[in-house]
Amino acid sequence: MQSSREGALVAELMMFRRDADGRDVELSSSTVALEVELQRRVEAGLEQMLGIRFLASEYATGPWHRGRIDTLGLDENGSPVVIEFKKGSGSGVMSQAVSYLSWLESAQHEFEALVRKVLGVEAAVAIDWRRPRMVCIAAGFSHHDRVAVQRLPERIDLVRYRIFEGGLLGLLLVDSAPGFAGATSSRRSRERATGVGSAPAAPVTPPSAGVGLVPECLRDLYAELDDALTAWGEVEVAPLRHYIAYRRLVNVASVLFRPKHEAILVYLRLDPDTVELEEGFTRDMRGIGHLGTGDLEVRLASAAGLEKAAPLIRRAFEAA
């Protein structure tokens, strides 16, 4: 939920509980007493919360960078990830982001060795160095932080947290910059960037999503699919080596092309047990290796198929 504060829109995390009278009562929230409490909790559920595989905590960056990275990880698309936690506001987090991503670029062999040790050779070979990522988790961010994220060429996510009654942890993606290595923002973000009163455009514009990945025979269908996948607010569109990822904090959909069959495969972050599977249209992919992420495969070969898939797409994004 958003509230207006000092003339600007500020993202607010709110949670409600239904009381005995059937009324919704807002739960009180707070921040952690110690930063390490937040760090350990998120690290314990890193893959479920953020789609990131854990590599290391408190990782020293050496004498030149003189830092200690809170958490290192590898996300579901194979991108290296640096995570920084702040129990209060994210003061100074932008300078840390640039410094740590600079270290990551200079320490590729060291990072690959760490991935090989923790996750295995296959994960190390599949690292995608085009799109390293910084995730900053804090109680709040300033307007200047949010402006800086959109101006910097690095890929940075700003995530706000709150601890609610009963020990519930809430995470909210406040702002996200896809970087300039191939990712683009959602259609809505692109339209907003050219609207009246918007901030000046960044000096570098990333290429259109999926350029070079989309076969000619599937371009019209993919254009309609892209509209459907980016109609749900802030969605990052990330063209990767073998598929196009549509993500918020985690991948919500992965799109692959099968030109020989004139079909598009969409892998959604949905539990197949909650879907009535239909042969030739939807398939349970749990335990079956495939490119992209998501347990439910949806096969699209026409606009009619896309229309039939619309409720599944809606459910995936509503749950994200």
Automatic annotation (TrEMBL):
The lineage of its organism: Bacteria, Bacillati, Actinomycetota, Actinomycetes, Kitasatosporales. Residues 216-318 form the DUF5655 domain. Residues 183-203 are annotated as: Disordered. This is DUF5655 domain-containing protein. GO terms for molecular function: nucleic acid binding. It comes from the Bacteria. It comes from Streptomyces caniferus.
